[in-house]
Amino acid sequence: MPEPASRAFIGTSGWAYPSWKPDFYPQRIAPRDFLSSYATRLNAVEVNYTFRQILEPSTIANWLSQTPSEFRFVVKAHQSITHFRRLRNVEEPLQRFLDSIQPLFKSRRLGPVLYQLPHNMKADPVLLDEFLAQLPSRPRRAVEFRHDSWLSEEVFRVLRRRKTALCISETEKITTPEVQTADFVYYRFRHPDYTKRQRTVLRKRIERFLSEGVPVYAFFMHEDEPSGPLWAEELFRALQR
């Protein structure tokens, strides 16, 4: 499902946080209405729920009913694939996971799938190549490496060959180089604080890709206070100008 060129999909990693009231959510809003409120201010969300649970069709139907047609759900691959089996012998859990997200894909509301590897998983380009070869061409996919041994040109070549995005992740432990390996770019901004100046730099980095017609997905860390969604909304609005 190709996205329109020059589109920015901006959000946070999750939405179900009462602590975002009253700065982001209205004070009197009920939890069941969080997603519909979120979707009036941002146009994408990264779903961590799928890391531990297999989605039910009724859950997806509920999400779709609360969000507009242009809203995108980006899902994290189930831990059975990335953390328990660590990309090996994953045929059965991978197919179960992909089947579970089909209603999102068929509705044209699914963004990329994020395959997040464990912190202690070291580079194995051959294993990565064999795993990515098993994935269908759609939905789009991104891989987040959390051990710096993966950050090499050899790994980037595998990602390019398999049309998979390098997740450009900024954390207190690792900063991924800004390398484009697919027809879209995927950011995860995970620092606990971003100054106004730093947020301006983030915007300019994204604008560079958008100006070249490259769709961008970008998600701030949610945590238990509202700075993440507020920064995301600030970025989203700035990119619409």
Short characterization:
Helices cover 34% and strands 17% of the residues.
How is the topology of this model organized?
Layout: E1 8-12, H1 34-38, E2 44-47, H2 57-65, E3 72-76, H3 79-84, H4 91-100, H5 102-106, E4 110-116, H6 125-133, E5 141-144, H7 153-161, E6 165-170, E7 185-189, H8 196-211, E8 216-220, H9 227-240
Parallel strand pairs: 1-8, 2-3, 3-4, 4-5, 5-6, 6-7, 7-8
Helix pairs in contact: 6-7, 8-9
For the structure shown, list the relevant keywords:
disordered N terminus; TIM Barrel; eight-stranded parallel beta sheet; 8 strands; 34% helix; globular; alpha/beta; 17% strand; 241 residues
Structure description:
- With about 240 residues, the chain is of the alpha/beta class.
- The protein has a single domain (about 10-240), classed as TIM Barrel, CATH 3.20.20.410.
- Helix content is about 35%, strand content about 15%.
- It has nine helices and eight strands.
- It has an eight-stranded parallel β-sheet with strand order 1-8-7-6-5-4-3-2.
- Helix 6 packs parallel to helix 7.
- It starts with 7 loop residues before the first strand and ends with a helix.
- Mean pLDDT is about 95; it is low at about 1-5.
Radius of gyration: 17 Å
CATH classification, class level: Alpha Beta
Instruction: List the strand order in the largest sheet.
Output: 1-8-7-6-5-4-3-2
What's the CATH H-level superfamily name? Protein of unknown function UPF0759
Number of strands: 8
Task: Report the β-strand fraction as a percent range.
Answer: 15-25%
Helix content: 25-40%
- Biggest sheet, open or closed, and with what strands and sense? 8 strands, parallel
Shape: globular
Number of structurally distinct domains: 1
Distance between the termini: 26 Å
Taken in chain order, the helices and strands follow as EHEHEHHHEHEHEEHEH
Number of helical segments with 4 or more residues = 9
Helix/strand-derived category reads alpha/beta
- What is the level-2 CATH architecture name? Alpha-Beta Barrel
Uncertain spans: 1-6
CATH topology: TIM Barrel
- The overall pLDDT average reads 94
